[in-house]
Structure formats: C-alpha cells, structure tokens
TrEMBL record:
NCBIfam families tied to this protein: DiMArgaseDdahMtb
Organismal lineage: Bacteria, Bacillati, Actinomycetota, Actinomycetes, Pseudonocardiales
GO molecular-function terms, A-Z: amino acid binding; dimethylargininase activity; transferase activity
Biological source species: Prauserella muralis
One of the GO BP terms on file: citrulline metabolic process
Top-level taxon of origin: Bacteria
Name of the protein described by the UniProt record: Amidinotransferase
Length: 264
C-alpha cells in the first residue's frame, strides 16, 4: 500500500475524476489509514511504499505489479500522468528482495486488470491494459490467462467490475463477484460458464465501487455504501467489513485500488 500523502485530482483519466471538486487530503489519509489498520487487525501484513510528490495516484498500489508465486510482472501505464509510478514501484520490489521481476513491454496496469483466482488469471482489457499484455502475463508468470473485455468506461479496470472472493486451485471451486453490465456479451458468457455460482452485483453496488472489494476468503472489505452486496456475501458465509472510501473514490478508486496482494 502507498499512503495518499500527495493525493489530488488534478487531471482526468477516468470518468470519476473531476478537478473542480475539492479534495480533502487529510480525509483521504484518514480513510486510507483505517483501511490499512483493518488489514492488520484481520491478521494481514501490510508493506508500505513511500509516495512521491507529483504522483497523486500512487495511492492506487494495485496498479504497481502482479505477484504470483514470488514472480513479479511490473506495470506500464497508459496515462502519461502515471507513467513514472512504474519505476518507483520497480525499485521497491528490487529493494525488498524480489529478484524474479520482469517489466512489461506492453501496457499493463497490473492488478487493476489482473485478478488471480488461484488457478487462472482473469485479465481485463478495453480501456487500459493492452490485449497483447495478457499473453505477456502468461509467459512471464507461467499461469493460464483468460481475457475479458470491458465495455463501460466507468468500469475502466477489471477491478472496478469484478473481484475474487475465494481462491482455489480448481477453477470450479473459486468464487467471484462481478457486475455483468461492465462486460462484453462474449466475456459475460465466459464468466457465466466458468463461475456459474458467482455473486452477481447490481448497479447501485457497482456505482459505489462495491466490486472494488478485497477478500481474504472470509473477510471482505467493501465501500460503506455497498449494502446490498454485503448482504449477499453474508448469506454466502462471508464477513463483510464496510469502510468509508468516499474521498479516494473521487479519483476513481476504492479498497482494491489501494491494495496490491503479494502472493509469495
């Protein structure tokens, strides 16, 4: 995770960003700190990356890389405003002992568009990550990749429209939640075939970034407003934890955007 010390909305690279809307950095820091502390209270280890002036979106650390079995595929951003982040995160991985690290040749916004199910890497495209980056991820990480096309610009990253609830080495045992209207017809058929028992979210939950959740297989971090989704997850035996991420949402981010999951 990366604290939002320099958080701002000074430019527009997704439909949620509006530079004319005031941003409260102190409130963003408070919301981020509660998210970080919640992970720690649930027993997880949180590593922090030092933020850099002039890179207000570094807080969205999910875009810093994809780590599976200790292998790291770095990031390459589409928006020039975020391009410099990739090198700062690369240095963090190197300094923390990650030697099996590859920087991508194609545009790849990491866990923003990559979701690991435990056996298959679901890979989004349509707005940010290049389709060719999916093959690059498969070669680099050595895991099978399934491509999914996003069609609604409000859900510009896969992690705004889908997240993994529980990983499993058998794809049939993994569980996900997703918002159907964010996907192309073909991609939607793939999701229904692969995950017939998925939790399907409604529009209200999608619009508050409810699909930008983080699950450890039991506890599920969600935005405060995602109450209907929380109820559905509770009915499945999960423990929803609702947090206020309203300030961070002004830049088009939520709990998952702030969180890179490191799978050693």
């Amino acid at each position: 995770m990366c604290p939002p010390r320099y958080f701002a909305v000074d430019y527009v690279i997704n439909p949620w960003m509006d530079p004319s809307t005031p941003v409260d950095v102190d409130r963003a820091m408070e919301q981020w700190t509660i998210l970080r502390d919640t992970y720690r209270d649930l027993g997880h280890t949180v590593e922090e990356v030092e933020p850099r002036p002039g890179l207000p979106d570094m807080v969205f650390a999910a875009n810093s890389g994809t780590v599976i079995d200790g292998r790291v595929l770095g990031a390459r951003f589409r928006a020039p405003q975020r391009a410099a982040e990739a090198e700062h995160f690369r240095r963090w991985f190197v300094e923390h002992g990650y030697r099996d690290l590859t920087m991508p040749r194609r545009i790849n916004e990491a866990e923003g568009d990559f979701a690991w199910t435990g056996s298959v890497l679901l890979a989004g495209t349509g707005f940010r990550t290049d389709p060719e980056a999916h093959a690059e991820a498969q070669e680099t990480l050595g895991v099978p990749v399934v491509s999914l096309r996003l069609t609604d610009p409000r859900y510009y990253h896969l992690d705004t429209a889908l997240f993994v609830l529980s990983e499993a080495t058998d794809t049939r045992q993994a569980q996900i939640a997703y918002y159907p209207q964010a996907f192309s017809p073909g991609s939607l058929r793939v999701l229904r075939r692969m995950f017939p028992d998925a939790v399907v979210a409604g529009t209200a939950d999608a619009e508050c970034f409810g699909l930008n959740g983080v699950s450890d297989g039991r506890n599920v971090i969600l935005p405060l407003e995602a109450t209907a989704l929380a109820d559905r997850l509770a009915a499945r035996g999960y423990e929803p934890v609702l947090l206020d991420i309203s300030e961070l949402r002004k830049a088009g981010g939520g709990p998952k955007c702030c969180t890179l999951e490191i799978r050693k």
